[in-house]
Amino acid sequence: MTIPFFSPSTPFGPFQPLHEYAIANAESISWDNWYNLFVIPLVPLYIQALLLRYEGTRYYRIAVGVVGITLLGRAVVGYRFTQPWFNALNNGIAIGVMHLIARYLEFGFIEGPLVDRYFEAKGRHPLIGAMDVAINARWIGLGAIDLDHKGKVDPGHIHLNNGNGSGNGHISPSKDDTDVIDGGLEFSSTHQTIPNMEEGERAKESWLLWPTVRRTLFQAVVRHGYLALRNYAIFDTALYLIRYFGRTTIGADHPVPNALYRFSHENRFIILPCLKGFVKEEQLIAPWYIVEIVTSISVASGVWLGISSGYHLIGAILVGTGLWETESWEVDLFDSPLLADSLLDLWGRRWHQFFRHHFILYSTLILRLFHLPVNSGSTLFLSFILSGLMHSIGQFTMNPHPPLLPIFLMFPLSGMGCSLEVVFKRMTGKKVGGIYGRIWVWIAMLAVGRLGTRAWLESGVGGSYLTPPGAGEWLVKNLVEPYLIGKV
Prior knowledge:
488 residues; mainly alpha; two-stranded parallel sheet; Wax_synthase; membrane
């Protein structure tokens, strides 16, 4: 049996057999079987996180990891959404599975021990601390294996003052060797000291935002609930607009060739129809390129607001239980992406950093495996390559699926743009930023993002339901169509 390469007939390369098996044999996800995919395969990950608290558990964690990866692999090819209008959800599930497999591998091979350094000092129960280690990709630093230490697979031992893990924790310090790239991408071999844990302090990564406002539990829950509902309403409105105005093109739940072109050229849209009686109708017609730009922005904003809405919903629930501190969910996954003034700023800080740790970790390991130089530039660019592979191969349970190459290219091209910014600073001594930096980011991302927008919308993704329908339909019919956007 030969391993297939990436080709028009085998677009998923070595993952093609998994794709074909999943499409032919997977059961439709329902209320009767959802736990087989979303619960059972994750139990071993929680067990790994518990074992990570103790010395000498690596071999046990490796064994548990093998079980977890097996369960996860069987589940992702065994269950999928078969309804065309839910097809896009399969992409998110497959990407999540790939991320969890990476975490299983890491939790198996890291030497440990690993504890929740920041919140252990506040008396968090070990069972809750293990849950946070398993699910949290923003607050938990994984000792000397994390991104601040160039992905070294050597232990960052944490020493505790007492047996219950509630004393001061620290990592042995070593010589600082930090290389900071513009925009907050930082790689360092420093084994940082975690200061004054009894006061709830920890070393602050330069790229990670920290809460500046202290809220009561009630205030935090209300805030999370409001942001979850607001972002859901905007996201659902964008989805409904695509289905409403483009039901035969970009809003179809099946592939439509040249859907974006047809949508922008075969329709005429009125900007601010509420002004129709005050100006000539011709002055209100949006040109085709504005239609495509707005569509691309809507897709990207939808991804942003959809993920953010889910994050705040989970935050409201977990903080509301009283088992999580308010500040542990206080910072959003995103930091106002629309305000980015460079590509490094966008990808290094303002876009979500959920996969950041694993991209840098595995990029470093791959470079060392092939004896290639490990530096900030090579690690950064390879991280974008891995991101492109994850987002494109992550479509292997979709049917139909978008073309993989445009999805993949979005990320290496973004990496090239980040590299150009680094070169620009080295040549001029000035960092990309300000008003010209914002113009550059918008031009670059609209050009690169169009690859993904066209691929997704022409494959039927635009007709998918990613949120419970309701708010979008009401807002479109009562606000957007009468006052903001109309169709001739």
